[in-house]
Amino acid sequence: MEIVVLRNVYKFFGEKHAVEDLSFSVPKGQIFGLLGPNGAGKTTTLRMIMRILLPDQGTIQVFGNTLAPSMVNRIGYMPEERGLYKKMKVFDCVAFFGELKGLSPERARKKAKEWLSRFELSEWAQKKIGELSKGMQQKVQFILTVLHEPELLILDEPFSGLDPVNVDEMKNMLLEMKNNGTTIIFSSHQMEQVEKLCDAICLIHRGKNVLSGTLSEVKSKFGKNRIRIYYDGKAQFLKDRSLVLESNDFGKYVEIQPAPGVTPNALLKRAVQEISIHRFEITEPSLHDIFVQLVKNQGEQIE
Question: What predicted TM-score, i.e. pTM, was given to this entire model?
Answer without folding.
Answer: 0.82
